[in-house]
Amino acid sequence: MRRRRGGPAGPLPQRDGIDAVRLRLPADGGWPTAAAYLAERYGRAIGAERLAEMLQEGVFVTADGPLTALTPYEPGGSVWFHRDLAPETPVPFPVTVLHRDERIVVADKPHFLATTPRGRHVTETALARLRRELGLPGLGPAHRLDRLTAGVVLFVVRPELRGAYQGLFERRAVRKEYEAVAAHDPGLPAVRRSRIVKVRGELAAYEEPGEPNSETGIEPVGRRGGLARYRLFPHTGRTHQLRLHMSALGVPILGDPLYPAVLPDPAPDDFRRPLQLLASVLEFTDPVTGVPLRFETRRTLLAWQDEAAWRAGSDAVGGE
After folding, report:
1. Lower Cβ count inside 10 Å, N or C end of the chain?
2. pLDDT tens, 30-58?
């Protein structure tokens, strides 16, 4: 069942920090009951027996109460329900709150934890965790970090303010700084500009000839043996931009499973050797108060502190 966005808030409370799915009934429908529509459209995917059980259990709810087998079909009406979620492997590292006020929450996300629900990662996400732990059901993301990237993420407390903060990222009015560990290259620093393409359904993005749509500043800030710590400054926000640009320069970020080559998926409970990429700084002027704000991560990259421990797959990655 596809979730429809927008419209009135549903009658069901969140479950484990996850909103109920809202299903809009077609305005031109002629089904005798809402249950008949559900059976025709989704009975094959769910199974007739399971659908009947869900109706008996009161899983489906309208604005007037639980939907039953006899509830009349209401063209354009809405039905809410909570999906059956598959078990998820817990990510054993905490989300640290760097700042919280009545408008925003700034979190320091660990590696391996998705920012928002997507695919098989739903309840084990930073958003769901913060909603549960802070008691903030209206909390929403202003932007996102890759699941494998750790660091500073901005969330908005009240839905009516979300657009103001998301607009900062859309207008590129946020200064973002990242850290990465990769092989030392005496030819850097550099600025990488390229045209990045990400095809839906494909894991990795790629560069192609044409007008650049991405730009990253890359600056080495330290060297230890064959490794270097780099400061990265994204001036655009393309998917996997930093990872792809570093790989294209011949210095892929340590622990990257996609660049320069797509590697087999690790086991769900394999939290060894995290991607050595960290969103270290987020700086912007608050669109509501006009106050300049700057937030810095408290995490460090393990490969820079102890390369041998990182390569051995240390269990201490949660302390980065």
Report:
1. N
2. 899 999 999 998 888 888 888 888 899 99
Shared-domain flag, residues 132 and 51? no
Domain span at 238:
96-319
Average pLDDT over residues 234-250: 97
Mean pLDDT, range 14-38, rounded to an integer: 92
Q: What is the pLDDT of residue 119?
A: 87
Q: Are 182 and 253 in contact (CB under 8 A)?
A: yes
Confidence of residue 208 (pLDDT cuts 50, 70, 90): very high
Residues contacting 156, CB < 8 A, separation 6+: 103, 104, 105, 139, 140, 141, 142, 162, 165, 166
Give residues with Cβ within 8 angstroms of 200, minimum separation 6. Answer: none
| Res 318: pLDDT | 46
The pTM assigned to this predicted structure is: 0.89
How many structural domains is the chain composed of?
2
Give a yes or no: residue 1 inside a domain: no
Q: Are residues 49 and 139 in the same domain?
A: no
